[in-house]
Amino acid sequence: MKSASTGSRAACRQAHSTSTPQAAPEAGFTLFETLTAMLVMSIGLVSLFEAHSRALRTAGVAADYARARIFAQGLLADTVAGWSGRVVSKSGNDNGFAWTIDVAPETASWASIAMHDNWKLRRVRVVVSWAGGRQFELDTLKLGRSDG
After folding, report:
1. Structural domains counted in the chain
2. pTM, full prediction
3. pLDDT one-digit tens code per residue, 30-74
4. Parent domain of 94
5. N or C: which end of the chain has fewer CB within 10 A?
């Protein structure tokens, strides 16, 4: 059974609300919930950007080490291939790298073996350094006649 309207506002509102559904006052997000979600999202984005920045720096350092290694291997190959047997030291700068080459008699006890014709064991050391105090070092041994 339907009740008749008495003309009061409450009766009109109730009758009107049953014909067209309206959103409940609890629907949606509050300002506090929205700000909290934005805060969590911004912390996540800052962490993501920091990780990306760190990855770029690490990739740059790895590329510098790779370039230094290739450069040092080239210097070592040139030194050993064209070596006359003399004890030498050289240094220089090239493409942002400072390099030194040292050829010296091997001082380890196992290397002091008496040999005929003045053959000696030499240690060839190549050190390549660059910005940031980083350096790369290669060592090898070379057998050759000494000049005296």
Report:
1. 1
2. 0.62
3. 999 999 999 999 999 999 999 999 999 999 999 999 999 999 999
4. 30-145
5. N
